[in-house]
Amino acid sequence: MGNKEKFEERVDGSGFGVSKTGLYPAELADIDFIFDSIQRGAHEGYFSSDLLFPIIQLGLHKQISDSITTGYSPTHRGCQVPSWFYVSFDAGERTAFYWLTEEKTNLFELYKVAVEPSFRNMGIGKSILRHVNDRIPSGSKIKARLYRSSTIMLKMLVADGFTRDLKQGKTTIHLSKRL
């Protein structure tokens, strides 16, 4: 499966003769696209380089699959949290994805966002942020942690109302906002 694999058949049947555009809940057919996007992001320094280790990759692949099929994702603390993946399409081509988790009631994390290189600077990241904002209940808090090399994402999050938290990581920037 290629990173820019053309849209074929989706479970809801909408793939028959339809050129899909917009954000849709991820399905099992999207796993390789999501996994490959995360791997590329790790190579580019946008995600942890630990994700490049084969043993970690097996766990990541399972975590993506579990999240898509059950709506829950295991955490490093050993518990399961609600988890959602959405995939962006442009004329049937996968262009981006985002991964959102709910750590506890009304505390969400925008866990990962990746836009295919050939689709960057086209407003897809902003449309993802609008989509996230529309799905989180009013009064909730959403947080994001970025590697320092994610300067474009940092600018988008700040423009969307995120502010830097007091606690910061050595290699990451911690942001949050209340909706």
Brief descriptors of the model:
179 residues, acyltransferase activity, transferring groups other than amino-acyl groups, alpha+beta, Acyl_CoA_acyltransferase, Aminopeptidase, 4 helices, N-acetyltransferase domain-containing protein, GNAT_dom
As a percent range, the share of strand residues is 25-35%
* CATH superfamily descriptor of one domain: Gcn5-related N-acetyltransferase (GNAT)
Biggest beta sheet attributes: 8 strands, mixed
Residue share in helix: 25-40%
Q: Which regions are unreliable across 5 or more consecutive residues at pLDDT < 50?
A: 1-16
CATH topology of one domain: Aminopeptidase
Tell me the radius of gyration.
Answer: 16 Å
Give the CATH level 1 class of one domain. Alpha Beta
N-to-C SSE string, H for helix and E for strand: EHHEEEEHEHEE
What's the pLDDT, averaged over the residues?
A: 87
Overall morphology: globular
Strand-pairing-aware structural class = alpha+beta
Number of strands: 8
- Helix tally equals 4
**Termini distance?**
37 Å
CATH architecture of one domain: 3-Layer(aba) Sandwich
